[in-house]
């Protein structure tokens, strides 16, 4: 046997023993909870591309929203799956409130970090608050954070009510308005709010035409790109020419970049000192770290795109769910309407000062986000051997060992359906938020130091929109969307179907807006 063959064989044996040793450590660490095996890891590009879940092959992109809590409930709220591709690794799926809080706060201690190998798939236009860690993330947060303030929230409210009023003016005297896809209302509405309140670009329902030197309108380009983000993330640029759909995504990507560039150039010619919105703060983002380094054009574009998607896509999806739920649970819609009218009688437009009193609208939105979190889960990586505290079968705290390199899924959807935290978790019960509830078990905006900066922005926008629309229109499911004898839960399961790409957006629902007597 030649020395080359011997060396190769030795290396193979060492590699195999190392892999087996890692697998043994994984198995030892999971003795207290369930374990399963899949071929392809959840962070692999192959998992993005395969059409759904294939037993023993992959979990599928939709596993969190499809399974909810059903894969737990057999002891502690942790399960582990071991994958072999692209390498042997374990991932812990966690639906325990205390453990999730511990892992989210681990960003402060450095125990649990964002898996940049996964997030770098979404490094589209440049670095951003989403695709960053450590000092770079702190730098972006310091620049962006001050934009979310009381003055901006008031602007959000005014823009939202103004745009809803414009929409109702377009509907005019029609007693019945049929919308074949509810996203045709929620998507442009939320885009116009974030464009105005976040970036100082005022538009109206008439501004859907294609701008000069563009192939798509901004609304169309952003909608196409958001729906195709996974394709853009996974496929190399040369593959985006293969099919009509991929070519459309490629064009949309370039169009969105062009529109954002125009917004930036227009704002640079204005007095930034008089403006305090997101875009102005990004352009003013200099001398924020020890080096005094300002943001590059790529950093401005990257953060601008992230804020557009975070501020528009997630809110649009939530409103789509809210309107569908109110149409399905008509008794809850009636309670909401009566509560609104007790605060805002007649045809008065709700004001920002009314918002603290609009508690039922807030509860409806909270319950919708509990049932259909738009961010269903977030991944983390353990950077050293540690443990996480979870509730045991008898209520005791059990510390589960976590091996360095283990991937973790903070499963918000499963947590929101966890019966130890929520009574009758599948029921649509806005009233549950008027009782005592565990704040650590409700995480539609994540938690810890990386929790969503724009939470108040989003809540303000949604309360304004829901309040004004429900005060003027009764929302119903279109007749052809009804099945006789169907329970509300069955109807909800059939009509509100989330599909996970970057966010968990629902499919559009055909709705009827029936004008109320004011």
Question: Can you characterise this structure?
Answer:
- With 518 residues, this protein is an alpha+beta fold.
- The chain has a domain at 13-124 and 376-443.
- The protein is 47% helix and 13% strand.
- It contains 18 helices and 13 strands.
- It has helices at residues 3-29, 45-49, 63-67, 97-109, 116-119, 134-144, 150-171, 183-199, 218-227, 229-234, 244-268, 278-283, 297-328, 330-343, 359-371, 412-416, 455-472, 488-495; strands at 34-40, 78-85, 89-94, 112-113, 176-179, 377-382, 386-391, 397-402, 407-411, 473-477, 498-500, 504-506, 511-515.
- The strands form 4 sheets. The chain has a 6-stranded mixed sheet. Strands 5-13-10 form a 3-stranded antiparallel sheet.
- A hairpin with a 3-residue loop joins strand 11 and strand 12.
- Helix 9 (218-227) crosses helix 11 (244-268).
- It is globular, with a radius of gyration of 24 Å.
- The model has no long low-confidence stretch (mean pLDDT 86).
- This is Cytochrome P450.
- InterPro entries: Cyt_P450 (IPR001128), Cyt_P450_CS (IPR017972), Cyt_P450_E_grp-I (IPR002401), Cyt_P450_sf (IPR036396), Cytochrome_P450_monoxygenase (IPR050121).
- Heme binds at residue 452.
Average pLDDT number: 86
Q: Which percent range fits the helix content?
A: 40-55%
N- to C-terminal separation?
93 Å
The backbone outline, from C-alpha atoms, is globular
Topology readout:
Elements lengths: L2 H27 L4 E7 L4 H5 L13 H5 L10 E8 L3 E6 L2 H13 L2 E2 L2 H4 L14 H11 L5 H22 L4 E4 L3 H17 L18 H10 L1 H6 L9 H25 L9 H6 L13 H32 L1 H14 L15 H13 L5 E6 L3 E6 L5 E6 L4 E5 H5 L38 H18 E5 L10 H8 L2 E3 L3 E3 L4 E5 L3
Parallel strand pairs: 1-2, 3-9
Antiparallel strand pairs: 2-3, 4-6, 5-13, 6-9, 7-8, 10-13, 11-12
Helix pairs in contact: 7-8, 7-17, 8-13, 9-11, 13-14, 13-15, 13-17
Protein name: Cytochrome P450
Main location: membrane
Family: Belongs to the cytochrome P450 family.
């Amino acid at each position: 046997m030649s020395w080359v063959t011997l060396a190769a064989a030795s290396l193979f044996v060492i590699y195999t023993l190392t892999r087996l040793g890692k697998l043994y450590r994984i198995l030892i660490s999971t003795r207290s909870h369930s374990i399963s095996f899949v071929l392809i890891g959840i962070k692999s590009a192959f998992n993005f591309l395969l059409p759904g879940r294939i037993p023993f092959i992959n979990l599928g992109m939709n596993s969190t929203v499809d399974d909810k809590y059903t894969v737990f409930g057999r002891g502690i709220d942790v399960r582990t799956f071991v994958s072999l591709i692209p390498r042997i690794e374990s991932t812990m799926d966690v639906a325990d409130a205390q453990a999730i809080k511990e892992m989210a706060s681990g960003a402060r201690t450095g125990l649990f970090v964002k898996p940049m190998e996964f997030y770098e798939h979404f490094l589209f236009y440049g670095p951003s608050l989403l695709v960053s860690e450590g000092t770079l993330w702190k730098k972006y947060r310091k620049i962006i954070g001050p934009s979310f303030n009381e003055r901006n929230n008031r602007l959000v409210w005014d823009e939202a009510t103004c745009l809803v009023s414009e929409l109702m003016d377009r509907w005019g005297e029609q007693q019945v308005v049929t919308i074949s896809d509810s996203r045709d209302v929620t998507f442009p509405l939320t885009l116009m709010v974030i464009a105005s309140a976040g970036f100082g670009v005022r538009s109206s329902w008439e501004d859907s035409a294609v701008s000069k030197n563009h192939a798509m309108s901004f609304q169309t380009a952003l909608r196409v790109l958001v729906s195709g983000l996974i394709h853009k993330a996974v496929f190399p640029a040369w593959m985006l020419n293969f099919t009509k759909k991929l070519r459309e995504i490629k064009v949309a990507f370039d169009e969105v970049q062009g529109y954002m560039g125009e917004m930036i150039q227009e704002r640079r010619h204005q007095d930034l000192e008089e403006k305090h919105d997101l875009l102005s703060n990004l352009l003013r983002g200099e001398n924020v770290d020890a080096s005094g380094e300002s943001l590059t054009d790529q950093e401005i574009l990257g953060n601008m795109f992230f804020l557009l998607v975070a501020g528009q896509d997630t809110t649009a999806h939530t409103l789509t769910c809210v309107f569908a739920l109110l149409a399905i649970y008509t008794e809850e819609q009636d309670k909401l309407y009566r509560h609104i009218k007790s605060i805002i009688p007649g045809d008065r437009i709700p004001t920002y000062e009314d918002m603290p009193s609009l508690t039922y609208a807030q509860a409806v939105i909270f319950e919708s986000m509990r049932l259909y979190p738009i961010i269903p889960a977030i991944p983390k990586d353990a950077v050293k051997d540690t443990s996480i505290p979870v509730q045991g079968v008898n209520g005791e705290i059990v510390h589960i060992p976590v091996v360095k390199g283990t991937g973790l899924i903070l499963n918000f959807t499963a947590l929101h359906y966890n019966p130890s935290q929520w009574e009758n978790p599948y029921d649509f019960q806005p009233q549950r938020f008027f009782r005592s509830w565990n704040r650590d078990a409700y995480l539609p905006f994540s938690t810890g130091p990386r929790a969503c900066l724009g939470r108040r922005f989003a809540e303000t926008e949604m309360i304004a929109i829901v309040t004004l629309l429900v005060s003027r229109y009764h929302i119903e499911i279109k007749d052809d969307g009804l099945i006789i004898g169907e329970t509300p839960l069955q109807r909800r399961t059939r009509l509100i179907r989330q599909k996970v790409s970057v966010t968990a957006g629902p499919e559009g629902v055909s709705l009827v807006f029936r004008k109320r007597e004011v």
